[in-house]
Write a structure and sequence with these properties.
With 563 residues, the protein is an alpha+beta fold. Helix content is 25%, strand content 14%.
Amino acid sequence: MTFAALKRKLFITGLATVGLTGCMGDPAQEGAPGLETETSALVATISGTISDTQGRPLSGVFVQLAGRTMASQTTGGNGTYSFALNIPEATASWSVQPARNGCTFAPTVANLNGINSSRVQNFTGSGAGCVGVAQNPVVVATDPGPRPGAAGAGDPLPGLSTQELALFVGSEEAFKEIDSVSGDGVNGEDGRGLGPTFNGNSCAMCHGQPAVGGTSLGLQSPQNPVPNPQIALATLRGATNTIPSFISATSPSREARFPVAAGGGVAGLFTIRGRNDAPGCTLAQPNFAAQVSNGDIIFRIATPLFGAGLMENTPDLTLSANLAANGAQKASRGISGRLNTSGNDGTVTKFGWKAQNKSLMIFAGEAYNVEQGVSNEAFTNERSAVAGCVFNGSPEDHTNNGGVDEGAPAEVSSDAVLFAAFMRFLAPPTPAPATPSTTNGLAVFNAVGCADCHTPSLTTGPSPFASLNNVTYQPFSDIAVHNMGALSDRVPQGGAGADEFRSAPLWGAGQRLFFLHDGRTADIVAAINAHFSTGSEGNSSVTALAGRSATDRQDLVNFLRSL
């Protein structure tokens, strides 16, 4: 029956039903003498999914409900329909019939007689023109959550010399130092140069999970459950900041960027206005509510820094050769990827969510300036240096030789240099011992193509530091940038486009609390599924993984949580 014919038939049937009831009357409504009834009302639904022979949902299907009550609906993209039932009787009968041009349905019509509760009735359409909407594959598995036990990270590289170890210890102290505007030492705030705008007052504030050098802290941490420290920081020492809507006690520590209004640059969450060490400063926060309302805002969280020195010392030729390896296999999976490079010397840049920073020194100097507002020898200019809010000369962080020619490196070097040294000598995370599940998970990881971007191992080049010299390590990253489709944050950096991101190193994922560049999810399975979208180079792997057995899917997740 055609769509139009069905609608005409149902209209006539409806008139006949109304006429019959009007002629014969309803004894219950007319109050027939001597008749007492007691019924329980039926409140339920008749619902279902209409799909093609391949299981794809069919949209545009006209669905008619007839019987005790009548109604109609047209299915949307998910192919579902649902009719609410609410009648005084305890049971009643209905029929459900779908219609769409070009489709023949099985069953043609569903007669649901004497139903007394909700019913699900599905239909399958067939025919040359009866093709449903392709759905995104979904990986179904359970994230066991961040791995408990001691932090498997935060130690120095093995094999450091006595002098190198002393530098690591001193640089870690600098990394944990808390900054104030003037460095007055109040509340342990010995560092100097905070603001005028800032997102944090210590490197370790955002790089603390599961140990110093990691990523965002959080209440769900098995190692150190604490609320987002940005909440307390907003009003520390009398500051008058309002906490933006995207910052909460349970959210990761975030930075915000305005893709249009600020060209993708970082907008400091807070200012030093009102702080008792910044008298007279009146600099207001950006209008985050307006930016959220008009959609001109994106977020980033801190990248983990473990093993950064190994990545820094990996030669460009090694990375290029790794990217070119298995080219035919990668091409068949829609994987291209490329290395982000410096616009000056053409060498590979490696650090940051888009591999936009050339070296750990540049990475440290930029973060110190942008995240804490401290000008330094790499980034010498104060940000938002408005009148009344500048209290120190620039660079606020500088070499501390004090006019002498000798001193321990940790005493003489600037903070930015020490931050770079800390990252350089920071060991990679230690994975959990292998189990049959995680061993199979690694095999699945390789088989579905995850390893095409998340390269399991790389090797450093020659180094003056023995601990970094020709070392094979397991970052699970190719350090290249790849098109991630709908994950685009509309911010190009270096040679990386708005929709390109560095393959995030997966070592340490087992104890990470938040995933993806903006920390949008704490569920590693949701992060995997977010790799699928139009244009994403992760589509083939997500599709392949979604098609594996439940055991394989869960084993891969368990493997990631073992790293």
